[in-house]
Amino acid sequence: MTLYARVIHTPIGPLLALVDEDGALVALPFLDAGEDAPAAAARSTRDGTVIFDDSRTSHVTEELLDYFGGRRRRFTLRTAPRGTGFQLAVWRALEAIPFGETIAYAELARRVGNASASRAVGRANGANPIPVVVPCHRVIGTRGDLTGYGGGIERKRALLRLEGALPATLAL
Question: Which of 16, 56, 75, 103 has its CA 20 to 30 A from that of 25?
Fold first, then answer.
């Protein structure tokens, strides 16, 4: 499989967009300071080739920059993450959380049909390969605390602040 990549510079740091041949977003990992984009791209695909091509990823860049610029509240990008059936169900449920709202892990577990699966939902949430677009940052602890985020708690805080969804107790 061939994937097309592009580094997108955002207010919360660079993201590496990876799309398939049909233009569906497959992965959107954060790049840490000084991280090599080709090496990060190679980690994101185990069975294919990655070609850096801005023209094939421009739709992702446009929607992300609109989101960070306050001009977009809902992504229209097609996504094609790879995961287990349970992970895919969790990620679909994440996509249904509206801009500016948060839910607890227990509520997310209930929405995927297994109210007692909060920990499994948390693991699936943490494995989300398309952060920001598949809004795993909108899931918070039962007491309103910002628990785990693959991009780091400060990025989660920034995303929730951007959406006006940061719990008042954490707004500092």
Answer: 103
Residue whose entry in the numeric block shows the structure tokens 């592009």 = 6
Query: Degrees (nearest 5) of the Cα angle 40, 43, 46?
Result: 145
* Residue 104: strand pairing partners: 140
The two structure tokens encoding residue 69: 């610029």
Binned at pLDDT 50, 70 and 90, residue 90 comes out as: very high
* Architecture of the domain made up of 2-68: 2-Layer Sandwich (3.30)
pLDDT, one tens digit per residue, over 11-63 is 999 999 999 999 999 999 999 877 778 777 777 666 678 889 999 999 999 99
The amino acid occupying position 59 is: H
Q: Give 140's strand partners.
A: 104
User: Would you say residue 68 has pLDDT above 90?
Assistant: yes
In 82-171 the beta strands, taken as DSSP E runs, fall at 103-104, 139-140
Residue ranges with strand state E in 20-126: 25-27, 49-52, 103-104
Domains 2-68 and 85-170 share a fold: no
Q: Which of 83, 82, 80, 103 is nearest to 93 (CA)?
A: 103
Sequence spans of domains, the chain: 2-68, 85-170
What top-level class would CATH report for the domain 85-170?
mainly alpha
Query: Catalytic residue numbers?
Result: 136
Residue 168 is predicted with a pLDDT of 66
